[in-house]
Amino acid sequence: MGYISVAIDGPSGAGKSTVARAAAARLGYVYVDTGAMYRAIGLAVCRKGISGDDTAGIVAVLPEVQLDIRYEDGAQHILLCGEDVSDAIRTPEIAKYASKVSAVPEVRQFLLETQRDMAKNSNILMDGRDIGTVILPDAPVKIFLTASAEARAQRRYLELHEKGQSITFDEVLHDIQQRDEQDMTRAVAPLKQAADAVLLDTSDISLEQSIEAVLRIIRERVEDKP
Prior knowledge:
Blueprint: E1 5-9, H1 16-27, E2 30-33, H2 34-47, H3 55-61, E3 67-72, E4 75-80, E5 83-84, H4 92-101, H5 105-121, E6 124-128, H6 131-135, E7 141-146, H7 149-162, H8 169-185, E8 198-201, H9 207-224
Parallel strand pairs: 1-6, 1-7, 2-6, 7-8
Antiparallel strand pairs: 3-4, 4-5
Helix pairs in contact: 1-9, 2-4, 7-8
């Protein structure tokens, strides 16, 4: 039997990374956070002083980007040109850059083979915006994990406040809605549910219930395979 790939897609703030990371750990799969890769490129662009709307400038940065992923104690670390930027990429500013650079075809192509190669070498659980539709269209398990904009904004608002960031709920909600619009309407690999993906709405369930639901879907789909 070959390696098993699980694709989890969904909008910003739906809890994909948290749920996917926990589910992968329980299954013994490798967790791949593709959003972190786009954030790392966004960070590289930001550090160069290039606007997120400057497509030519973004493309020009790519040859200088050296991206590595390492796993320590089950945690994914993103290295940008040898520097561990796992924390530096987790800011609202870099999140906006990530959304901008992810709409650039050259950026997506730059990361495509790296992401696909990961699925050839181990059982993986990969989350993002276009995993089931573009990156791993043949994955035996696809899940579209979502939640209402208000539920996602509330979670993100609490998370940011715990980190000491001063921001209002309305600002967070606006950012979420703006990110949804960008992700769903971009010309290249827009956010959408794959035809064969299972829809999982986590608006009214807890984190643990979300993890259990994902594990149940994976086990059902994998056991159904000959």
